[in-house]
Amino acid sequence: MPEAPILALPLLEVEGLGIHFGGLHAVRDVTASVPAGQITAIIGPNGAGKSTFFNLISGFYQPTSGRIRFQGEDITRLRTHQVVARGIARTFQTTTIYKELSVLDNAMIGHRVRTRAGLLDALLRTGRERRDEEESRVGAMRALDRVGLAAQAGRPAGALTQEGQKRVGIAMALSSDPKLLLLDEPAAGMNPEETVSLMGLIRELVSGGLTVALVEHKMSLVMGLADGIVVLHHGQKIAQGTPGAVSRDPAVIEAYLGGHAHGGQMGQPGRAAGETGGAHA
Ligand SMILES: Nc1ncnc2c1ncn2[C@@H]1O[C@H](COP(=O)(O)OP(=O)(O)O)[C@@H](O)[C@H]1O
Ligand SMILES: [Mg+2]
């Protein structure tokens, strides 16, 4: 018998999802699901459409085809803050934290940006918003506690290690108390030790009931972490399955070895190079 994950209901389902920019089909006809209570990795070479996939799910981009369902509800046409309100939060490939502000202020901004109208709203303190501030503070502190940063709340975010700053970024997303957390290349810019620590955090969050989908272009990095893997290539899904099955899939091997040498690192567990997309020489 192949590894049989405990039957988990899909929290998120996409069907025939696609978006094109002019003639470029960044995501094309993707049907996939994210089971509740698991870690699902979206992998694929640089430019495969992974970040775009997250942009579609989180409402940053409107799909040109297909549907997105979350907890059975059609969320295809919802705006970002409405998606957040349903329980989906994300981090960005390039984490934008405010280094000179405190860790707590960052987490509070994360809460406000995600639950209010926008960044400007979050930065301006109007009378109406002062009432929301206490709510933001409570949500932010709870999120910092979950990522192990409660004791650092008063420090400037820029004083933390790279990994600490990543945790701030994750706290910013967690401050809206999501059911599904989307992480775009969480290990980018980290050394192997930091990567192991961050993976531990992701596992802890999932043990606590969170569902995680994460984007990564290095297959080796997700082999020991993900319950299931979705492989994108040129915007299309070419495989979905357990890490074992996916790593043996000929189409996946071809995608990784064909002209994307930097991604062809299957079978090298634990190698955590810290490049961001396109940063390699
Ligand atoms: N807003 C956009 N306008 C035009 N092209 C885009 C846009 N966003 C992404 N793309 C293109 O879509 C493709 C997939 O990009 P992306 O999703 O960022 O890839 P990945 O995250 O897998 O590296 C790339 O060719 C990229 O240039
Ligand atoms: Mg990307």
Automatic annotation (TrEMBL):
Pfam families linked to this entry: ABC_tran (PF00005), BCA_ABC_TP_C (PF12399)
Gene3D superfamilies linked to this entry: P-loop containing nucleotide triphosphate hydrolases
Record SMART domains: AAA
GO cellular component terms, semicolon-separated: plasma membrane
GO process terms (BP): D-alanine transmembrane transport; L-alanine transport; L-isoleucine import across plasma membrane; L-valine import across plasma membrane
Domain ABC transporter: 12-259
Presence of keyword Cell inner membrane: no
Keywords: ATP-binding, Nucleotide-binding, Transport
Annotated spans, Disordered: 262-281
Keyword NAD: no
Database matches in InterPro entries: AAA+_ATPase, ABC_AA/LPS_Transport, ABC_transporter-like_ATP-bd, BCA_ABC_TP_C, P-loop_NTPase
Classification via PROSITE patterns: ABC_TRANSPORTER_2 (PS50893)
GO molecular function, one term: L-phenylalanine transmembrane transporter activity
Protein name: Branched-chain amino acid transport system ATP-binding protein
Source organism (scientific name): Deinococcus budaensis
